[in-house]
Every structure is written in C-alpha cells, then in structure tokens.
Known about the structure:
This protein is of the alpha/beta class. Helix content is 40%, strand content 14%. It has helices at 14-22, 35-39, 43-46, 66-75, 97-101, 112-122, 139-143, 146-153, 179-184, 198-206, 216-220, 224-228, 236-249, 254-263, 273-276; strands at 2-5, 28-29, 33-34, 57-62, 87-92, 129-133, 158-162, 189-192, 211-214. Strands 2, 3, 4, 5, 6, 7 and 8 form a 7-stranded parallel sheet that branches. The protein has a two-stranded parallel ribbon with strand order 1-9. It starts with a strand and ends with a helix. Flavin mononucleotide binds at residues 6-11, 31-32, 60, 91, 93, 132, 162, 170, 192-195, 214-217, 270, 272, 275-276.
Amino acid sequence: MKLFLAPLEGVSDCAFRTLCYNHGADLTFTEMIRVDSLVRQNKATLALLDLKNNVPTGIQLLAIKPASAQEFVKMFPSFDFVRAPEQINLNCGCPSPDVIRQGGGAALVKRVQRLQELITIFRKLSLPVTLKIRLGLNSYEKKHNVYLNLIKNVDADAFIVHARDARQSSKEKADWSVFEECIATGKNIIPNGDISEKEHLAHFRQLGVKEVMIGRAAVRNPSVFAYLKGKERVSIANLREEYHLLCKEYPNNLKYKENVLSYLGKEEGIHSRKWLM
Length: 277
Ligand SMILES: Cc1cc2nc3c(=O)[nH]c(=O)nc-3n(C[C@H](O)[C@H](O)[C@H](O)COP(=O)(O)O)c2cc1C
C-alpha cells in the first residue's frame, strides 16, 4: 500500500515533506496554492512552490477560473524545481467560506463541467491531474451523492476522497462507508480521513485500495508512514532534531517551524481555523 502525506497548510513545506519522506511517505503534497495569486506573481504564494529537493511531490492548486489556469500553464516552464512535480492536484475540499463564495474548494464538488474544463487545461502540462474532494458542501449535498456524481462524470487520474462534508470538523468521524460506492465506479480512489493504524490499512486493502492519504497522524508523528510499513515509530526527540536540521537545509517561513514543533507528539490540538472549523 502506498502512503501519501496530505496537503497541510502552514505545515507541509519542503522541510516537513522531506521529514515524512525520510520516514516512509511515498508521495507528498504542497499545501493548497492559489492559482490566481501565482499568476499575479505574488511573492509569498510563489514561495509555496518550494520543490527544492528530490522528494516526490504533488502540487496542490486552488483553481477556479479557467483563464488563470491557462496563465499558470504558460508560466509553468519558468518555475525552478529540483525535481518535476509528480502530479497536479486540484483542491475541491477547502471549507473556507471565502473560497466557497468564489465557487472554489468544496463548492467545486458539484461544478462538474467547470472541473472538467480546468482538468483539460492542466493536462497540457503532461502531468497526471488528480482531485482532492470532500463529500459535498454539507450533509444535504452528501445525501444527494454529489461526490459520486463528480467521480462518475469527471475524467481525472485519481480522486482523493476526504470522507467528510465541508461543514464537518475533524472531531466528527470520517464516514468510511462511502468508499465502497466510490470504488465501485471503477475510478482510482484514494481514501483520506482518520487513517493512522495498521488495521485501517487492512480494511482498505480488503476494498482493493492501493493508496491512502494521511494528514494529522503524520503531524503528530511523521514516522507513522514507516510504522504502518512495519517499522518502529521514531521518538519525538529524534524527529525534532532531524526536523531542525532540515529547516536549516531548506529554510522556511518561521510560522511553519513553530506549527510543526508545537504539533509534534501531541495527540490533540492541531488547530487550523480554516481546515478544522
Ligand atoms: C493544519 C491543516 C491544514 C490543512 N491544509 C490543507 C490544504 O492545504 N489542502 C487540503 O486539501 N487539505 C488540507 N487539510 C486537510 C487534510 O489534507 C486532510 O484532508 C484532513 O486533515 C483529513 O485527513 P486526516 O484525518 O488524516 O488528518 C488540512 C488539514 C489540517 C489539519
């Protein structure tokens, strides 16, 4: 089973992604990067494209307007990556009211035509284009299977399914019962939400899943990937030391370092107003 590190705003920069890769993550993701800001050459946003080493990384984009997506495709050859990204992942799950008001993030789950338009544009980069979706904006959309409609009708290389709707906080359990139907579509489904233990992987293996994505469990202990592959967990003290060194090698915004160091080893308390409302 391949294990992916989830996109994590304020956390998953180059140093943290490297830490997770060193401890067994097969693929990592940047945090969500706004295409509109990239094409405006916003410096802070451009800095998020920090593919500075040889770690397999997907770029997660918040794309809403096809015109900005076209601009991004034109700009793409000018980006300075040590290793080409493994894929472009489009965010269809951000629960931020601002993003949703603009028709992006979780609002895209029911905008099948727009999503297909965006995917066609990003495919010009000759990279796989995947989606990371929630189950809809709210329980009503979930009940009406908007996520299944999307999976059936959109042609993407994979669908990472975070099994919550956009109103749900991460304190509510992810609803794994949706995965069977998702997988029955025959599309490439990558489960996400509350995955942290070997028996969780066993459950998904039984369903025929080959890849899962892990978020908060990796923030608590980045060696969760190695642990799930049968190795011992690494101590928090050793992980801290390694992370300090990686931050020197891949200098980052101090906010990331503070976040990661405050979350490491904590069972609870990974706070992000936007993602865990
Ligand atoms: C601090 C934090 C930041 C996040 N940032 C992003 C992000 O940038 N893009 C995204 O698609 N999801 C983001 N998420 C959601 C996670 O990628 C993931 O879908 C969610 O945490 C559920 O997985 P988990 O139960 O394994 O943590 C974020 C979550 C947290 C806790």
